[in-house]
Amino acid sequence: MNTTKVIHQAKLNNWADLIREQQASTMNVTKFCDAHSISKSQFYYWKRRLTEQFVESQLPDIVPITSPVPDTCCTTFKSCTTNQTISALSTLKLTINDITIEITEDTSDFLLNKVIKAVRNA
Hints:
This protein has two domains: 3-58; 77-120, no CATH class. It contains five helices and two strands. It is mainly alpha-helical. The chain is elongated, with a radius of gyration of 23 Å. α1 (3-24) crosses α3. The chain has a two-stranded antiparallel ribbon.
């Protein structure tokens, strides 16, 4: 691990201790920050960084997958025989822990991006 990463990890550990201390105390964030001579913006910045790091560590890596075309359907949707086959080809159901997301080919990139960000921050 290089020096920059070691320093960053040390800061994360220090702020994790401070945030746990504040949560265990009876002081609100403003009073706690005043007592420890830190700004509220610093406190919330590091709290957000720690949350993001935790979420990143909990999410599995995104692995690209390919889906084979089922034998019951030809290569074009026009020649498919049932709506079920079309639905099976054009819907992706993704479940992470207790969160299930169904994505269709009509799902906009914008919406998909928003949903992924929301799941990461949940």
